[in-house]
Design a protein that fits this description.
Helix content: 40-55%
Number of strands: 2
Order of helices and strands: HHHEHE
Number of helices: 4
Radius of gyration: 15 Å
Distance between the termini: 29 Å
Largest sheet: 2 strands, parallel
Oligomer: single chain
Structural class: mainly alpha
Length: 105
């Protein structure tokens, strides 16, 4: 990928996709809020492992850039949609980082 000049930007945004979910495994598409928030539509064991591994890689990359992982000004703010798979992804990510999910989108 090409380097991007971010010297004039105040904030940086990182998109972190949810891990493999139970619906992924069952080849189901879950896109409604009603169904997306159900406990049965969260991450499966593979997805939890994916998130933990990716969270660790991202944490190391941010630390190399001296980005503080604490919640609040100057730190990383983790925001997730109300869908179960994204909430569980955010919780796993924050568990690896030792911080908390900030808000629901």
């Amino acid at each position: 990928h090409m380097p991007i000049n971010t010297s004039n930007l105040r904030h940086e945004y990182i998109i972190f996709r949810h891990g493999f979910s139970v619906p992924n495994r069952e080849r189901r598409i879950v896109s409604s809020m009603k169904n997306g928030c159900l406990a049965c539509n969260g991450l499966d064991a593979q997805g939890v492992g994916q998130v933990q591994e990716s969270a660790d890689h991202l944490m190391n990359a941010l630390k190399k850039r001296n980005v503080p992982l604490h919640n609040g000004p100057g730190g990383v703010i983790v925001i997730a949609s109300p869908f179960r798979r994204t909430q569980e992804t955010a919780m796993e990510l924050c568990g690896v980082w030792g911080t908390v999910v900030n808000a629901a989108a």
